[in-house]
Write a structure and sequence with these properties.
mainly alpha
Length: 70
């Protein structure tokens, strides 16, 4: 049992259930999400991370960007 993976999966399910945002209202855009994927601890990007926690499409895009980085 991988507790970290289970926690991430539960969060992903919650974001999709509670914050689908199909119109992508207020989304920061691909370039900003790409920056966040490569610099996740950058304090200047904390507002972007706050958005990602409440936006399923941005969550998915960030997840894909991080996966593609290896």
């Amino acid at each position: 049992m991988d507790l970290e993976k289970d926690l991430i999966d539960a969060f992903e399910n919650a974001v999709h259930r509670d914050s689908p945002n199909p119109e992508r209202v207020g989304c920061p855009g691909h370039e900003v999400l790409a920056q966040l994927s490569s610099l996740p601890s950058n304090i200047e990007l904390s507002q972007v991370l706050a958005h990602v926690r409440t936006c399923a499409p941005c969550f998915d895009e960030l997840k894909d960007l991080r996966k593609s980085r290896g």
